[in-house]
Write a structure and sequence with these properties.
alpha+beta, 3 helices, Uncharacterised_YqxA, DUF3679 domain-containing protein
Amino acid sequence: MFRFSVICTFAVLLLFFGVLLGMQFANQGMKNMKGYDDPSLSSAFSVESPNEGEILGQTVTSHDIEKKKQKIEELGAYNFFSSVGKKVSNTVSIGFEKLIGLISGT
């Protein structure tokens, strides 16, 4: 009986070690497949200094960002949907005010 217990314990430990080893190999394979440990892949974003960085191989400075922000603000000065939304909301507000005025009798 003792010999059987030792053999079963040894078999269970061997199989458990095999499962752990397989999980480790699977983890490494997944990382290699995703490219985490591939030194040939460059990062998509890097910061070189507080005012300069690199995004997808193009150097970007804070001045570029300011220019783009200013351009977006100029383009966003007139937004068709925004103006239509404001007009619709004003019309609905006035309509409800008149409806409430008629209902309340004032």
